[in-house]
Amino acid sequence: MTTPEARDQLWLIAGLGNPGPGYAGNRHNAGYMVVDLMASRLGGKFKSHKARADVVEGRLGIGGPRVVLAKPKTFMNLSGGPVKALRDFYKIEPARIIVVHDELDIDYGVLRLKLGGGDNGHNGLRSITSALGTKDYHRVRFGVGRPPGRQDPADFVLKDFSSVEKKDLDYHVDRAADAVEDLVRRGLVDAQNIYHAA
After folding, report:
1. Fewer Cβ atoms within 10 A, N terminus or C terminus of the chain?
2. Is there a catalytic annotation at residue 101?
3. Residues marked as binding for tRNA?
4. Which segments are annotated as binding site?
């Protein structure tokens, strides 16, 4: 159960991606997709923030924890600037920052939640870690799988999900949004027990 103190603590949930309609369906934009769905659940519309991000403020359910959903408007490799600016603006500790991002080293549709760790070659995470000066923020890793054959991973993540993947993409995005909400409400260990068991 969420305590009154926990309800009043503000969380920053940053979904990573590249701005613009040409990138909207890319694997690299899985983070954008998840926070877009969360915003629709809150009934909010993204508004431009001076931190070079689009944001939605709200609560997870009636009387639930306070959250800021954010989509950095810089390209993926420069995500750290907006995330740091939002952290400073809202005065949020790194431990209450959740970054939602695509992950090549996890099979498509699989979710992994963690606190801290390396960037695993992900340029968005590298930028955020550098800007925040710490690795100790939460990550919700949305598996997109490895590219087939010899395809360059950089090209692979900048392609749309395949027609086969798109059949259950909505389900996986929905489940990832649930995972973020459970991470905020229940804490990391309980959320891991739910989503890592599947």
Report:
1. N
2. no
3. 23, 75, 77, 123
4. 23, 75, 77, 123
